[in-house]
Amino acid sequence: MEFELEAVLSFSGEIDEINDDISKVISDANEDILKRGIPNDVESGGASVVEHTTDGKDLHIKISSDRYVRAHDAVVRLRKKLSQDMGKKHHVGVRGINIERYQISFELEDEPKTQIKVPYVDNLNIIGKTCSISVTSLTEEQLQRNFVDRIINRIKEKVHHQYYGGKEEKWELVWESEKKDIVWKEDPTKVMEEKGWIKKGPTKGKWFYRSQAAKILKTMEDIAVSEILEPLGFEEIIESMMVPFDVWIDTGHMEGIPNEAYYISEPRTRDPDEWEEIVDEIKISREVPIKKLDKMTTPPKAGICYAQCPVIYWSLKNCTISDSSLPVLLYDKTSPSARYESGGRHGIERVDEFHRIEPVYIGTKEQLIDLKNDLIERYKHVFEDILELEWRMANVTPFYLQQAGEEEKDGKTELGTVDFEAYLPYRGTRENSEWLEFQNLSLFKKYTDSFNIKSQTRELYSGCTGIGLERWTAAFLAQKGIDPKFWPEGFVKRVGDLPKGIEIL
């Protein structure tokens, strides 16, 4: 990895007459601050100012460096040193840095199959596995915010995904239940819609659940809380359904699922006079003037909840948690989730808006491994003894973490994600049909690091296990049907009699 940077450091006053002092600072820096970061077992390397000249208030420099001290870090270090020393002795300091030329070359693991494009890069050229880029348009602030390293990493990621991004997720069977008798093979969504239990929502990918279906979903919620969360000590919280972009950046969602998020715009003003023209058009045309509305709303800065866990982690950002409070066990069941599914929608199990409980846990690795095992046992109890499902468990990797390049790996499979999948008879045979992922459970190190959540004495891990009410209902009804006479006794006890509903003529 090689870096060659040409830049101009602009001072607050004339510097031609103090060129000797500036040269002395640069010479010392070449032997000291521009070498810091080189491993002890490496004899040479780092950064070095190879050329410099003064011109009025400007200092022109050329820096060559390697991967140990990158040129953009070196110029920031040099600026600080020059400002300190020249300020004390000559009362001048560096006011800004202007990049005139910044050329970087580095090696890739593979030759790209197609052309690569990355923002902030003026020129990108790849010959074989050697990549050369020019990033002269970066500002001083962007240099300090580590844009260069992220650009390099992004190029490597994009090449990597050309080879591995299309491969199927890792899937490893962990456990499976006994086969259950098949009592029907109908699609429950279709039948419930025909019977008037559900109705397609006013916008695509949403459903209106009438009283019969709502009773089933709410029973699933009660079972999850009473049989899984409360016995393990989880406490309920209430959160906002609006998530600002910086929270999604911290979790990896913003770069992993931007094509699936629903975005939120705010009115530019609440002044009724400013909205009068739009109101007039609506009253006359009975349509919303979209182009005018667009001018009266702000660009999105937040999205609708994709999953409840990011805001829970955000609520503890930069906090130090007492050891006596560990593990932290929280859940939210009030905020609906929204995901743009486009053409992938199907029934109540794959929708743009759904309802779920999101349990989040934070603690030591040992605490959460024990909790993971306890959660699995509680899920087994519900799925085996109450719902009597035919289901299985598999180790997988979450899609949004794969997209964000944040796959968790642990040789003992203690970290990562376990998917719970149910057989849906209406889709075909057990062996050849796609099973429904109706539950998962994750344990990671990522989020406590991303949100700087610490304890008094121990390293913290975290995880979540979203309980989707539509998915539970779809799995249950696909196997047991919508006639209560086929339902297990454990579920019948909890659901009771279904409401009569509305007779529509």
Could you give a short description of this structure?
The protein is of the alpha+beta class. It contains 16 helices and 24 strands. It has helices at 19-31, 71-90, 140-144, 147-164, 188-195, 211-229, 245-251, 253-256, 276-285, 290-295, 309-314, 365-386, 399-403, 446-450, 469-480, 489-495, and strands at residues 2-11, 47-55, 58-65, 94-107, 123-127, 130-134, 172-176, 198-200, 207-209, 235-236, 242-244, 263-264, 302-304, 320-321, 328-332, 337-338, 353-354, 356-363, 391-396, 416-422, 436-444, 454-455, 461-464, 467-468.
Provide the structure class.
Answer: alpha+beta
Q: What's the oligomerization state?
A: single chain
Unreliable stretches, pLDDT < 50, 5 or more residues?
A: 399-413
User: Biggest β-sheet, characterized?
Assistant: 9 strands, mixed
DSSP helical segment count = 16
Shape: elongated
What value does the average pLDDT take? 92
Separation of the first and last Cα atoms? 75 Å
Number of strands: 24
Rg over CA atoms: 29 Å
Share in helix: 25-40%
Q: What proportion strand?
A: 15-25%
What report would you give on this structure?
It is a single chain. The protein has 16 helices and 24 strands. With 505 residues, the protein is of the alpha+beta class. Strands 7, 10, 15, 18, 19, 20, 21, 23 and 24 form a nine-stranded mixed beta sheet that branches. A hairpin with a 2-residue loop joins strand 5 and strand 6. The longest helix is centred in the C-terminal third of the chain and has 22 residues. About 3% of the residues have low confidence.
